[in-house]
Amino acid sequence: xxxxxxxxxxxxxxxxxxxxxxxxxxxxxxxxxxxxxxxxxxxxxxxxxxxxxxxxxxxxxxxxxxxxxxxxxxxxxxxxxxxxxxxxxxxxxxxxxxxxxxxxxxxxxxxxxxxxxxxxxxxxxxxxxxxxxxxxxxxxxxxxxxxxxxxxxxxxxxxxxxxxxxxxxxxxxxxxxxxxxxxxxxxxxxx
Length: 191
Fold this sequence. Notes:
This protein is α+β, with helices and mostly antiparallel strands. The chain has a single domain, classed as endopeptidase fold (from Nostoc punctiforme). It has five helices and eleven strands, in the order ββββββαβααβαββαβ.
């Protein structure tokens, strides 16, 4: 696999862009993910909480995915602002990570739409988007909530990740991104 970015090895940090998705490949595959935000930090949900880590300190090999075509500055701002808001309001959802993602379907259904409408209202009213979240759910929510049209969730937008984040493992997200023409697989971030 081609190395897209290797910290402190002469690769330029500006190859990475806000909105890029990292999916860890160094433990049981793939086990963790996060989203790049302004300042080239990665926001991700861990057992220690929702944290922001400098890109050069990510510490795990990861595959890097980017929307195609590349997000505009406004689109990247929408996605990363949601990540920042989730970080400010949520805690790590161990039950979601261990049970709900394992024993439920990742297909979008009525429950997904209802949750997204609730989160949309919270986002609009600055109430804290979600209370509990795990890594792939955080990434998926950033891309789902960024494409809110008027008073409804816009599932038809090319970058709306059509998965139920509450029930999706990083491996399922990885398969989804690899099989979707609206996403480019850039290569590996090599720790």
